[in-house]
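Quick illustration, no need to memorize.
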Amino acid sequence: PHPTPVLQIRSAHVRPGTREAEVVLTRLGGPPEMTAEVWAGAAERVEVTLGDTPAEVSLDVSSLQAGLHPVVARTELEGVGVLRAESEIGIASPTASIDWIRQYDGGIFASPVVDGPRAYVATRSGQLECIDPVSGTRFWGYHLLGGTQSTPALSGNQLVACSALGRVVCLDVRTGTPAWTITLPSPVRSSPTIHNAKIYVGSGEGALRCIDLRTGEILWEHRVGRLIESRPAVGMGRVVFGAWDQKVHCLNAATGEEVWTSDVGSNVYYSPGSASCLIHDGRAYASAANNTIYCYDLVTGDTLWEAEGMSGYTSPSVGPDGTIIYGSMDGHLIGLDPTTGDDRFRVDVGPGTFNSSTDVAGDMLAVGALHAAVTVASAYTGEPMETIDLGETLMFATPAFDGRRVIAGTMDGRLVSIIVNAERSGE
């Protein structure tokens, strides 16, 4: 079955709180025993003998700097040549360490979704998986035909995902079994929003639809004529969304009738899989590609204030003190007074374009940079506590953050789990 021996790295990770890496190696085929060298980055090499069972190797990685490092296993067999296997480990920094990494076939545009003992990830190649957020172990998988750039939405035991072929599917989160599937007439890049057992989602032909969560029946649709790629915000009986018609729209959530519109003079794009307007405390917030953040009276549509933000691709979050927080395209975290739009903070958190939005957890937040770095910062001041570089790739998706663990997706198909030292970060 294996005429040519195969060398594999089954797992590689740094033990939390240490500078010791644990690597598990296996072989397929070959002689009864096989000797291999294993090393991480520029650290010292360790020799291990492989038999019929997996072999565990401990590597001293105290000499390596914080960040991602390659793990390599290598052997040379007579008559076969060199066998080589590769993986990666994340070295602990003062406040955070990379816990585990899962590799997928397609880039991850959509934001990971974490809910207690389950996490969900969707890729551009169509992989949709439910995993254990603590260990990264896969519970189940489902294939989305056409792939997705849209973040799934969760409600109780139901998960709704959308595809580039216009598919909308509702899955049982416990098994991954579809309850129903419908096909819309155009691609769906908009991430769905679930509210009161209804799904609200935009599509490529410029329609915002309301779908019954239980049956998949389309209850109403509202057409604006141009692409709707951002995620709808739903609350207080209203649906607010932006579109490529250079407007922000507000609809009656029950009927789909238009309540008000606002011309922002620029298309309202999307940060892949995440961008949305925000409804909070009787106001609606939106960002447009003209680098302006808008605040509206939700009832009347009157513009209450405008602020400069360089935030045309990101979504607002609400801080613990009510601050409206954006990550900006020029590498800033911006905190605005919700009443006046005045700056509460505007902090430079590093180079790169922040296409991902902020995810607030307690008094901290996480945000991703285009050059594939995750920054954990204070949700009160925007001051960075830690930045974790994820290597030579890109990041669009918003990291999921629960105050202790960050799960981030990258465009080279990696899903990375990062443990944050909450005690140190809270100082």
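The first helix runs from residue 422 to 425.
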